[in-house]
Specification:
This protein has 22 helices and 17 strands. By secondary structure, it is α+β, with helices and mostly antiparallel strands. Pfam families: DUF3502, SBP_bac_1.
């Protein structure tokens, strides 16, 4: 997962999370979790007349404790606020929440949480993403939540969309509960350019790749120590929009393919064999040869955001919803006080494509006995604006105030993750956010359409050996070409030969077979 908490006080994105192909893996393997009816039996037992259930219909009679595995560090205020949360949970769903915090590095395939799930360690829910969830389902460690939607997720269904649930549905079964509804279309389709540098060199606008290159050369002439961008091998989509007449989408998770969004079937195209691959390679080679790309582009392990906000780069990868205005610009201004950002999206006539709908989701271990309470908790969090404000910002007039319909924070400590729970159906913005960002964020998803690949992710088992070998070739041979470090003419034939030796043809055929089967269900 891309570390989505970098946006903890921001609107929506992830990387993380997102990043990747969405999940409805039609070929996924079912979990061995017990039937939902057995785990939720106690929740169906009504309380006597005169109890809290009269004020809160559906409140279960039996009291239960549930445990969340969260990420990062617990703030001082959150440690206190959990008691307030549990007063609310006791009253509304007769439940008590415990939160265990683990490092961000614990997240993902092969990491600490993965090992905890495999060994059956005691917790009831944690964050997930479509790609990792697919692996967890195939390992049979994810709970089948399908039968819990109707009885326990009414408010989630009302305030999210069917696509939110589809994103985490595998083989017709729901294996994660979606959270949040942020503007996520066209994520990483744009670039955030230093507007202050544009003003300095007299560039009023940038709408083509040639204009971007001209801007870079003008800045380089004035600032020889600056480079164009720290993003290259993992940053393809914006340049494809500017270099191709086709309506293709690409993302780092399915990095070997382009999705043809204009074709009825959403055909997959081999990226490395496409004219678009060569065009991007040639563009970055030209920048590399003219010292616009740093020579350590492939070896510098610093985070992209940290590199860009150092003030040494001209542009970086954009984010959906205009999030770099709040996620990146404040840190950049610490080093360059007069810095401003200008969002560039090439080929604006092409539609914005959505590859995901939910900000994130939570999965329940297959062995948990409390899946019904997890569903109730998530439903409560997304019930309405009042509950969003409570879980994210705390107690009104103690932790925050509402001023001109914006949140003015009194408590600066983080509580529940804002980016995870933000919902466009009851948008709440902080007083520190500029009005231009809010305007962009509110209208960002207008006209957006779902990708033809939305809901698909590969079941790797038939080609897992080939995938490991191909990834090694990609890192060693393909990335240097995309970054301009090695020219296309010099490096491509060798790279393609090694891909074929690694099993490219078998891999491509298997992906095409699974994808065609998936698309057949959408007709």
């Amino acid at each position: 997962m891309k570390r989505f908490v970098n946006m903890a006080l921001m609107i929506g994105v992830v990387m993380l999370l997102i990043a990747g192909c969405s999940s409805n893996k039609e070929n996924g393997t079912a979990s061995d979790s017990p039937p939902a009816s057995s785990s939720s039996a106690s929740a169906s037992t009504a309380e006597p007349s005169g109890s809290s259930s009269e004020a809160h219909p559906g409140r279960p009679a039996e009291f239960k404790k549930i445990k969340m595995l969260s990420l990062g560090d617990e703030s001082a205020r959150m440690k206190e606020f959990l008691a307030d949360i549990n007063v609310k949970l006791k009253e509304e769903i007769n439940t008590e929440l415990e939160i265990q915090y683990v490092p961000w590095s614990a997240y993902g395939s092969g990491q600490q949480i993965d090992l905890m799930l495999a060994s059956g360690q005691d917790f009831d829910f944690t964050f997930t993403d479509p790609t990792w969830l697919n692996q967890l389902v195939q390992k049979k460690v994810a709970y089948d939540l399908t039968d819990l939607v109707e009885p326990y997720m009414a408010d989630l269904k009302k305030n999210l969309t069917p696509e939110h649930f589809e994103q985490f549905t595998i083989g017709g079964k729901l294996y994660a509960i979606p959270m949040g509804y942020s503007p996520l279309s066209a994520n990483s389709y744009s670039i955030s350019v230093r507007k202050d540098l544009m003003d300095e060199v007299g560039v009023k606008s940038i709408s083509t790749i040639d204009e971007l290159y001209n801007f870079a050369t003008l800045v380089k002439a004035k600032h020889p120590d600056m480079y164009a961008t720290p993003n290259t091998p993992s940053f393809v989509q914006p340049y494809i929009r500017g270099l191709s007449d086709q309506n293709y989408t690409w993302d780092e998770v399915s990095k070997y393919f382009l999705t043809d969004e204009n074709s009825a079937e959403g055909n997959l195209v081999s990226f490395v064999d496409s004219p678009e691959f060569k065009a991007q390679a040639d563009f970055f080679r030209k920048m590399y040869e003219n010292n616009l790309i740093s020579k350590d582009i492939l070896t510098n392990k610093a985070a992209t955001k940290d590199l860009f906000t150092s003030g040494k780069y001209m542009w970086m990868q954009g984010r959906s919803g205009g999030n770099n205005l709040i996620e990146v610009l404040p840190q950049l201004k610490e080093n360059v006080p007069n810095a401003e950002l200008y969002e560039v999206m090439f080929a604006p006539e092409k539609p914005k494509i959505k590859t995901g709908y939910a900000s994130t989701a939570v999965m329940v271990p297959a062995y948990s006995k409390n899946a019904d309470r997890v569903a109730m908790l998530l439903n409560l969090m997304q019930k309405d604006r009042e509950n969003f404000l409570f879980f994210v910002y705390g107690i009104q007039d103690k932790d925050y105030k509402i001023v001109n319909d914006k949140v003015e924070k009194i408590n600066k400590d983080e509580l529940m993750f804002q980016w995870a729970l933000f919902n466009v159906n009851y948008p709440v913005y902080e007083s520190t956010l500029p009005d231009d960002f809010i305007a962009i964020n509110k209208s960002w998803d207008e006209g957006a359409v779902a990708s033809k690949m939305f809901g698909f992710s590969l079941v790797l088992e038939p080609v897992k050996v080939q995938k490991v070998k191909l990834d090694a070739v990609f890192d060693e041979r393909i990335k240097p070409i995309l970054a301009g470090v090695i020219s296309y003419d010099k490096g491509f034939k060798k790279a393609k030969a090694e891909m074929e030796a690694a099993g490219w043809n078998e891999y491509f055929a298997e992906v095409q077979k699974q994808y065609k089967a998936f698309r057949a269900t959408k007709q």
